[in-house]
Queue: 3 jobs
Job 1
Amino acid sequence: MSPLLRSVYSFLLILSIALPSLAFSSNRHPIILIHGFIGWGRDEMRDYNYWGGHTDLQQVLIDEGFEVYTVSVGPISSNWDRAIEAYYQIKGGKVDYGISHSEEYGLIRSPEGKVYDGLFPQWDADHPVHIIGHSMGGQTTRMLEYLLKTTFPDEKSSLLTSSDSGWIKSNTTISTPHNGTTLMPIVYNFFPFVQKMVVYLGGMQEDSFVEKYYDFDLEQWGLSRDEDESIKQYLRKIKASKLSESKNFCAWDLSLEGALSFNDLSETDSSTYYFSYATYATQKKENSDYHRPDEMMNWRLWTSGYMMGKYLTSEIDWYENDGVVNTVSMWGPVGSELSAHVIEEYSGVPAPGVWQKMGKLHYDHEEVIGHKLGKFDPTDMKNLFITHCQLLYSLN
């Protein structure tokens, strides 16, 4: 797709979403941004933002009149641990990963230093929030909703001992592997774990930059990084720990099997609005069902894009991808026959209780949130988020 056609398509898509929300706002609930795998918070990576890259997307949205906050959760932690961290960052208090969960996986239940004032302490059913999650952040939001609504026996934290519905007004996912990604087995089968992590981080910024400004937030595992320890040395320490072989780790949650397991456990809420955006940056090869990267994919994702585009154990419709996640996995959770997840095309009128497919965007996994090598015009990205936030504020 040419840049001109892409801009026209993006404008028409944004306009179609914006039309229902051009009236006065029906709510002013805060919007929470949750990053994905290998993501970071606003106090890391200096002035390079996860949300926007060299553009401060949070500030852009604030300038447009939205109340927006960003949380910073474990970049390679499990969705359970990430959701717990997100809860306490929003609500306030000392992180408690749960008695049973901590005992099962050998965690420090309430690590020192993980205490928060709360970005929005009044958060409850009368004061709900909208959440936008990119990549694994969308899974984390679904886990947070599950933890809010589920009562766990013999626990002590307020999150795990009560059933709270209505705290999340809407859940928007962007490039989220709801049903897993075939990148996970590729990483484990073809690339050493540590090398892949270093390559990905090195693609974001220079190694020296990452060394100084990036935090893996693994205090619950007793895996704090020593002061004189390099990123590569620290990653080797993680690899040597029991973390990388545990199901309480991102690799399990992002796998096809792990995602299906959670999809069968979680449920959509009849009062919550769900929106999903998909991305792609591959095209079919000539005379083949396989996919290859197209001109929209950043070169550092070419290898994964190629390999996902022909991963032999996947179905044909799983070949299309954005370099990190299979596009078909982004529309919403699909479980077994016992699951009750409903996925529909967005009709132009928001409907609660179903996953609404908002559009397939011609971006790779990083560019949709502002990460691109070379020149990058953030106008389309900013308009996409502004328009969607307008839609969120139009919800009754």
Job 2
Amino acid sequence: MEIELTAGNIKCGGCAQAIRDGLADLADDVEVDIDTGKVLVRGKQLDETAIRNKLADLGYPAA
């Protein structure tokens, strides 16, 4: 299963790493595209609401 979201405020590699680290407990794999703000989350069981909430808590709210 995978979920793709567009998150705001992603400006650098540090932002991308913060997102990967922050979502590590919610997903098996997280890819972040700094240029587009796309966050691709993969896992066997994903909770989109929890992922959106975590992104918001980290300062990268999903559209």
Job 3
Amino acid sequence: MKQINFKRYGLYLLRWQLSTPILYGVIIVLASTDKITATVIANLIGGLIFFWVDMFIFTSKSLSVQWEVKDVIVCVDCGKEARGYRIVKAKEYDKIRDSNPEFRCEECSKKKLAELRERGIEV
């Protein structure tokens, strides 16, 4: 099961709630037209506005954990040669300028992830 990024999900739900009064306002302004036309125009305006908001929510690197993946590494923990993973940046965790990056196999990476969560780091 894919993990949910609750930060993105929360922002999306907030955005969804903000769209209601905006679209309602457009429908009120267009009250003199028929209901279907007003609804279509309101949805087009909503799409023009919220496309950009949604794109930020779902693609912003500031809202997600940044990973680096290499095809073949030697795991820093178990020594196994495998595909390598490392967290580069998360809230309160920054290894962007790390001079000696530590890559882990998938199994050890999951253990490291659990360790970071136990330390209170949001990943």
